Model the fold of this input.
Amino acid sequence: MSEEKVLLYKLLKGWEDALPDELVPAVKDFVDAQPDTAVAEFLKKYEAAGVDWGYSEGSGFVRSIMKMVLDAMLRFDVRGAENMDAALKLLAEGKADRLVFVANHVSYADANIFATAFDSNFEKAGLAGKLAVIAGPKVFSHPVRKFASMHFDSLLIAQSQTVATMPVAYPIRVIARAASMVVEDIKAKVKMFLVFPEGKRSRDGSMDHFLAGVYRMIDTGENVLVQPVSVLGGEKMLPISQGKLHPADVSINVGKAQYVSDILEEIGEVQGVKQAFMDNLGKKVAALHPEELRGVYK
Done:
């Protein structure tokens, strides 16, 4: 075994425990078949991922593995794919500066599920490998989660003190610096990204308030499109406080995209426009949910 592959397996020691036994040989066969240059490229990106706030590049090597694993484990029920395709077409044709997907959050696997579900849609629109995901520090604190985060490009943000689950919450100045770096990187490097505006995973599947601070990351251009998405089933694939993946049924419902300017016009002149904007999006995501899971947006 090459030096690169020895290092890969050392970094991800215990990775087999995260998968059903029947998938482990297929992943090993895939890795063994890859050229050492592909593994070396992954290792370089892995070392850099999550080191500082803002943008980190994903890995085609990881995308291939995650697609193979998730295609084998998930049964998708996708509604509203035509809404996704319509928004991607506007982005590809230059009629939108950026496309932002806003979704509820129930599992660390949500972003991987989303990326896998719409992989062919992105490819058809000429946007394969262009998805970025806003993520908090805990995603990068575990080797296997960090590996999974390279399924796509990532934007590392410091969690708001109101929802932080780290042992020590970040000071306000650190949160502000991280947000500024993420916004700068979005403007410079990102055409489409996924964000979970609740800022934390739901413990019971029901929705919580969308955070006003997320508005700053969404309103980053003249013609930004925002698309609400409901993703359910990730909590069955990767339950909270567990590290092992399970086969699961996943339901995804995609709403119609709107320009930020149209949403602001819809809201009108109100006090606390950022929170009003995020609550407007929260209600749109909730409308894609079963009623019993709409939580604060019921």
Summary: The longest strand covers residues 224-232. Strands lie at 54-56, 74-79, 98-103, 131-135, 153-156, 192-195, 224-232, 248-254, 258-259.
